[in-house]
Amino acid sequence: MRVAVLAVLTLTMVLAMAPSVASAATDGSTRIALVIGNAVYPDSEAPLKEPVNDARDVAAELKHDGFDVETGENLTGEAMRLALKRLYTRIKPGSVALIFFSGYGIQSGRQSYLIPVDAQLWTEADVRRDGFSLETILGEINNRGAGVKIALLDASRRNPFERRFRSFSAGLAPVIAPSGTLVMYSAALSSVSSDAGTDHSLFVSELLKEIRVPGLTAEETLNRTRVGVTRASRAEQVPWISSSLAEDFHFIPGRDGQPDVAATPSLPPSPQTEALSPSVSPSPPAPTPVASAPPTPKASSGQAKPPAEPPPQSRDDGKTALALADDPTIKSLTTRIAAKADDANALYRRGQVYASKGAYALAIKDFDATIRLNPKDVEAYNNRCWTRTVIGELPSARRDCDEALRLRPDFVDALDSRGLLNLKSGANKDAIADFDAALKINPRLTSSLYGRGLARQRSGAVAEGNLDIANAKAMDPDIVKEFTGYGVR
């Protein structure tokens, strides 16, 4: 009798100390995960603080929950490719396959790309070359036979790459995923979360808190996470969820498969919130594409002269502001700014969208507000420099370009912007110097190549100028139209 009792007690202790084993056995499926934390990007001013710490904590929790976890930190493109390949080979029919990524993500062509630390991104084509498409990853996981596919992305950050593109959509895009997939982004579609400057992100802190609650389905876990992040951030950060799961999956099953606690009620719908239904969530609407965005602002020296061409629209009238008020991205950002007038991130992003749509005066107002809140925001100075250059406000544009370069010497985007400023000012030698400096950093920067060609032509170096222009046109057939839009021919 004592032996039997001892056996029962031992079994009870083993089960209590190893919920991961019980969890995996209850779901009856192999659990595998790839967890990546990318923090050290050479294009960033400083390493991100959260990704590595968050990746380690998520990996530890998933191991506790019965997952076979591979963890990668600061992975290059080749390292990410190999890690994904190993993930694919570990998948067995009916497996639960999970990928967690913390770092920079970029939306291009309505797809979301995970960015390795050695990515060289200057055009959107580079994103597709160096980044890893989430849709492609989930498709391959599905093709390998995984029954449940989960993707958790803490990558909705304001990153150092997107401002380089002539067109952009901030944040991440809705994913077209195979059946049986659960996806969560740390922020709403086409939105970015503010950098808290802490060692752990709010998103991961709330996620781990809910994963540890026994008895919740994965959908309930993520929905509670969304509610927790939204409440903790006072609705400034609202995670996005999409689900096509056809079966229940639990990170930690409760007794007899029943939840040990009631699910947290959902928050009321908000402009940035997508509610998660118990089994299937509605397909997310595609984000409204943003029109051509300005090239990254540039910097320069020289004397300002009146532009030779009439500048593009230099002031926004009431009709423009009214028409843009219904743009979904602008509407969402305006709602955030109305709730918190000192949201510098939302002001900066709205300024970018305004500028991309030709609403230059409105863009400048938002960049003004951003700089008042953060006098060291080099991207805001750069974008305001570019916008002022386009509309012909050259002296004030020069001050912005020079300040951007003072804050970040050799800032290629600011060099490119100042080159355009000098070109419009007629300071061709200064323009050539700025474009030369930009091209030394990035030889594929088409706008600097074309701008240098024009400056060389105007300086009398016609043959060299013609060669630059021909090479720029070969790289980007629309570059002539782009510069015409700046008032430069």
Keywords:
Serine Threonine Protein Phosphatase 5, Tetratricopeptide repeat; disordered N terminus; Caspase family p20 domain-containing protein; 2 domains; signal; 9 strands; six-stranded mixed β-sheet; TPR-like_helical_dom_sf; 47% helix; 489 residues; 19 helices
Plain-language structure description:
The protein has 489 residues and is of the alpha/beta class. The protein folds into two domains: 21-257, Rossmann fold, CATH 3.40.50; 318-485, Serine Threonine Protein Phosphatase 5, Tetratricopeptide repeat (Alpha Horseshoe), CATH 1.25.40. It has 19 helices and nine strands. The protein has helices at 2-17, 19-27, 50-64, 77-90, 124-130, 134-143, 202-211, 218-232, 318-324, 328-339, 344-356, 360-373, 378-391, 394-407, 412-425, 428-441, 446-458, 462-475, 479-485, and strands at 31-37, 68-73, 96-102, 105-108, 111-114, 132-133, 148-154, 181-185, 240-243. Strands 2-1-3-7-8-9 form a six-stranded mixed sheet, with helices on both faces. The chain has a three-stranded antiparallel sheet with strand order 4-5-6. A hairpin with a 2-residue loop joins strand 4 (105-108) and strand 5 (111-114). Helix 12 (360-373) packs antiparallel against helix 13 and helix 16 runs antiparallel to helix 17 (446-458). The longest helix is centred in the first third of the chain and has 16 residues, at 2-17. The radius of gyration is 25 Å and the shape is globular. Residues 281-297 have a biased composition (Pro residues). Residues 251-327 are annotated as: Disordered.
